[in-house]
Amino acid sequence: MTDRNNRQHSNRQSKNKDLKQGELSITSRGFGFVNQTDVPDVFVQQDHLGTALDGDVVEVEVFSRNNKRKPSGKIVRVITRSRKPIVGVYRKTSRSEGQVTPVDDRIAATFLVPKDELKRASFGRKLKDDTVVVGHLGSWESSDKQPVFVLDDIVGKSSDTGIDLRIIALSRGLRIEFPDDVQKEVRKLRMPDMRKMKQTRRDLTGLPTLTIDPDDAQDFDDALSIVQREDGLFDAYVHIADVSAFVPPGSAIDREALERGTSVYFVGDVLPMLPERLSNDLCSLKPGEERLAFTARMTVDSLAEVHELETFESVIRSDHRLTYEQAQEIMAGRKHPAAAQVHLLQLLARTLRARREDEGSIDFDLPVPIITLDSEGIPQEVRRSERIESQRLIEELMLLANRSIAGSIAGKKGKSSRPFVYRIHERPKQEDTNTLLTVLQNLGIPLKIEGDLSPEDFSRILDLVDSLDIRYFAEKIALRSMTKAVYSSENQGHFGLAFSAYTHFTSPIRRYADLMVHRLLKGYMKGNTTGAVSMKAAELEGICDRCSAAERRAIDAEREHQKKKAMEFLRKKVGRTYSGVISGVSRYGLFIELVHYLIEGLVPVDQLGNDFYLLDEENFKFIGQEHGAEYRIGDRVKVRIDSVDVAQGRAYFTFANE
């Protein structure tokens, strides 16, 4: 057959195949998904990934499928390589070559470092075993050949204190140090003359004001005031650190903040979006010190109806810095100079929450593991988080400000010609809804839904499980079925909160989206139709996309670091027995979440017992073929910690004898 005939034959084959394109997301369990817009993602098992890596834009051949299941396929071509760096541990394999084993468990391949590359890199000849390096993929011809690694830099020794955080940050493309041009700009920053500022800003330094934050907070980006008026209405003030007053568009600090997109909160540490001089000092609403703020004043009645919204630049002075625990004690009756304010805020927050729930807003109350480290970064304690009323108070006031501001821009019809940054949350996909209903059915919670799933349906689920032992687990399953909230220049409402419009206004110290909202609002206040920054809708949407991507990147890094620390903690518990709940079912076995620590591990399929177990994927359970025993999502079990692989972030359990 000639080359021409070969090409014609290949083209005919391609036409008969169902080919899709999208970005590949690989999970820590080895399989991946090719993300699709408006259609189900395509599942790709590990042996069908070919030479593709996480973040690559790929072409996938979709297999014929059962309509009840997600489509599956195999990667046939890498279109565009991800630019994310690869971090790994170097080891010498011969006199002239070495290899790098990635620390990211989503990358199964081991990379070759050839002789020429060791010569090219300035530090190549000095590399020793167990050195952590960062680099990128040079080439990968086929899945049966070893990929080639290009060395970029040395991260440190695998035994260095804090190396795990640096590894995770670099492998996720996070920036650790601030560039020289940013540092130079920061050194020039000064606190402005507040007397001059009060000539152009509203002076609220005489208004009783307080902050409520975690005990270890360093950056205070929001403060509250409340006044009960003679007509019975309340004026609620939400003061937000005025970052835009210090960070002009296009400056080195601004460019770096956009690149970072968000602060990243690791266990016991943080990679801030802004340099510490800004976040912890100039912008921070410290008690007893005059600070620049951007204030939202909302006039609210006793039914939580907002009668008036006003936003303006201000100068404030916080009178009291309260921790959540201190505010909680004041709510319980402890005497304090700020007690009257706290009780008014408490009353308003309760009213706001009641109205929000009546409107169908979903309020997940899931505990998370809180890991305490010693001075060497070694986990000493893991406890369940507790959500107290003082935290809810802050949440409700921030929700009020964000919702009110978004609504004022979007208008009654929910659409506006003015550019803006919205926080949107779409309705769950039908396939995820079906999965949720199946899992709930297996948990003994039958739920019939007519038409599209609504926020009220989720509230019904939370009400049904509120008094059950499996409450937290059922809530987690419901949360998994929902789409992720993102930023958009087009208002599409917020499904989870049941808000017709929503934005992020309240945290510009740690989120770039909020900084953009401040700039746009200030522009509209001054009469500009296009906001503080003159930009096209496509440009603003591009910034929204970057902020959404930065948020996903940060969440992934935070989870990975927390998982690493959780495994370090569990390593000291090997051999002990704990109560657990089956939290996931896969062909590899059962995933069990320990009830006490909220940490997950795997019972491999060959450890399920003296039977041959088959996986019932549609009903999320294993069924013993001889004795008929079943293991289902939500079942309570007793497990023993068998082994822990900290490097891979995995714990292995076995069932304990009752």
Short description:
This protein is α+β, with helices and mostly antiparallel strands and 658 residues long. 29% of the residues lie in helices and 28% in strands. A hairpin with an 8-residue loop joins strand 7 and strand 8 (111-113).
Characterization of this structure:
The chain is of the alpha+beta class and 658 residues long. The chain folds into five domains: 3-80, Nucleic acid-binding proteins (OB fold (Dihydrolipoamide Acetyltransferase, E2P), Beta Barrel); 86-160, OB fold (Dihydrolipoamide Acetyltransferase, E2P) (Beta Barrel), CATH 2.40.50.700; 199-426 and 484-561, no CATH class; 430-480, no CATH class; 573-655, OB fold (Dihydrolipoamide Acetyltransferase, E2P) (Beta Barrel). Helices cover 29% and strands 28% of the residues. It has 15 helices and 31 strands. The strands form nine sheets. A five-stranded antiparallel beta sheet has the order 3-2-1-4-5. The protein has a five-stranded antiparallel beta sheet with strand order 8-7-6-9-10. A hairpin with a 5-residue loop joins strand 17 and strand 18. Helix 3 (163-171) packs antiparallel against helix 15 (537-571), helix 9 (339-358) crosses helix 10 (389-410) and helix 12 runs antiparallel to helix 13. The longest helix has 35 residues, at 537-571. The radius of gyration is 27 Å and the shape is globular.
